[in-house]
Amino acid sequence: TYDVSYRLIVSGTYKMYVDLRDRAVANAPLDITVVPADTSALHCTAQGGGLASSVVGIPASFTIQARDQFGNRRTTGCDVFIVKVEGLEEFSGNIVDTKNGEYQVTYTMPKKGKHKLDVLLLDGGEHIAGS
Q1: Residues 6+ positions from 72 with CB-CB distance below 8 Å
Q2: How far is CA 49 from the centre of its chain?
Q3: What's the pLDDT tens digit per position in 61-108?
Q4: C-alpha angle with apex 104: 94 to 9, nearest 5 degrees?
Q5: How far is CA 61 from CA 5, 42, 64, 79, 117, in A?
Q6: How much is the pTM?
């Protein structure tokens, strides 16, 4: 009996070849599927026009991409993100979980001025990258 350990940090599908004395062992190669780890706020990203600017009273939008601690894109949903604007109590946004690791965010800015948009992952309360 032999014990083998390995650590993969990039999600995807792999083939593991196992040889013993230059001969493939039974059932080799083995198919291995590596799925992303849990979502890490510090590695999540956001993109879209609504991050940089918006017009009072007109919906703006952007997309959050959930990622794990290794930068792998999450491929499932169920994370809870929060979007808020510093200094605005009456701000509301809508976040739609597309169930593939992406979250569509739409909001309407109620007040003119320069504002800081905060995007946080509820689990841990941490800001996502760039927020």
Answers
A1: 9, 10, 11, 36, 37
A2: 19
A3: 999 999 999 999 999 999 999 999 988 988 888 999 999 999 999 999
A4: 130
A5: 44, 21, 10, 18, 12
A6: 0.89
